[in-house]
């Protein structure tokens, strides 16, 4: 099976992260999927941006305290902060899988109405078979599975969250119980025992976020199924075993 490449935040090293420009570009690429992050604005609109705070004027403001219009203004035309509807309009015509990371608010709490609103939009656009819902929180995954049973669920093995769940093997067990079928590892936490535990749980295994030709080449030689990268063009060049000059050209693109 060919290793799957996912553009992290739309390809954050090549274009502005989580921006319409990034999604327009990755939709033209022969990659497998795109990862993006969602929050709720104060007017209930789902917006695509990574952090729970954004620079607004001369200070940081919580995303949840701003309307979707204010977020769009604050993030500027080419940046993040566009509505999820706008992003889906760009991605729907492509064949990409769409990994949606369900973010928490500025207090670290899940947004109460985020997943139900997502479920309505995914149903409206008919994208159940292409959507992967992602969270580190087992309770958020359980809610996602209940509302969108046809969508795949993804989580990750990251240092802090995994420690809070009782360690790598306990976390894998919790995620399996929550319905997770895709598990991505932080590169520092990937080893043979963890891989075996994920395989025993019938999970697709990935790594992220990997950048740079040497690192991409090394990880692509590992027994993994997918890889998240900020450099999708470079990852394609490495995966397809193009010449060194091709890889250098992809890096400059």
Q: How do the strands and helices of this protein lay out in sequence?
A:
Layout: E1 4-7, H1 20-26, E2 33-40, E3 46-48, E4 53-56, E5 59-62, H2 68-75, E6 82-83, H3 84-91, E7 97-102, H4 114-125, E8 131-134, H5 138-147, E9 152-157, H6 159-164, H7 168-178, E10 182-186, H8 192-200, E11 204-208, H9 213-220, E12 226-229, H10 232-239, H11 244-252
Parallel strand pairs: 1-2, 1-12, 2-7, 7-8, 8-9, 9-10, 10-11, 11-12
Antiparallel strand pairs: 2-3, 3-6, 4-5
Helix pairs in contact: 9-10, 10-11
Task: For this entry, give a set of tags.
8-stranded parallel beta barrel, 12 strands, 11 helices
Explain the overall architecture.
The chain starts with a strand and ends with a helix. The mean pLDDT is 93. The protein is α/β, with parallel strands linked by helices and 253 residues long. The strands form 2 sheets. An 8-stranded parallel barrel has the order 1-2-7-8-9-10-11-12, surrounded by 5 helices. The chain has helices spanning 20-26, 68-75, 84-91, 114-125, 138-147, 159-164, 168-178, 192-200, 213-220, 232-239, 244-252, and strands at 4-7, 33-40, 46-48, 53-56, 59-62, 82-83, 97-102, 131-134, 152-157, 182-186, 204-208, 226-229. The chain has 11 helices and 12 strands.
């Amino acid at each position: 099976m060919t290793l799957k490449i996912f553009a992290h935040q739309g390809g954050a090293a090549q274009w502005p992260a989580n921006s319409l420009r990034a999604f327009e570009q990755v939709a033209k690429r022969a990659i497998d999927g795109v990862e993006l992050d969602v929050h709720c604005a104060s007017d209930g609109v789902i917006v695509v941006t990574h952090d729970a705070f954004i620079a607004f004027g001369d200070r940081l403001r919580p995303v949840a305290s701003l309307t979707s219009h204010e977020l769009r203004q604050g993030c500027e035309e080419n940046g993040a902060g566009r509505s999820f509807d706008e992003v889906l309009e760009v991605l729907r015509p492509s064949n990409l899988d769409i990994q949606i990371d369900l973010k928490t608010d500025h207090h670290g709490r899940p947004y109460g109405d985020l997943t139900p609103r997502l479920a309505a939009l995914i149903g409206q656009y008919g994208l159940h078979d292409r959507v992967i819902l992602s969270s580190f929180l087992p309770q958020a995954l359980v809610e996602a599975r209940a509302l969108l049973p046809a969508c795949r669920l993804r989580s990750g093995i990251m240092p802090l969250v995994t420690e809070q769940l009782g360690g790598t093997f306990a976390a894998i067990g919790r995620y399996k119980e929550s319905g997770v079928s895709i598990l991505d590892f932080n590169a520092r936490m990937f080893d043979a025992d963890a891989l075996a535990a994920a395989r025993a749980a019938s999970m697709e295994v990935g790594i992220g976020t990997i950048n740079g030709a040497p690192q991409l080449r090394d990880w692509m030689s590992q027994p993994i199924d997918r890889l998240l990268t900020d450099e999708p063009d470079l990852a394609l060049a490495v995966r397809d075993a193009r010449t060194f000059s091709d890889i250098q050209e992809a890096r400059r693109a």
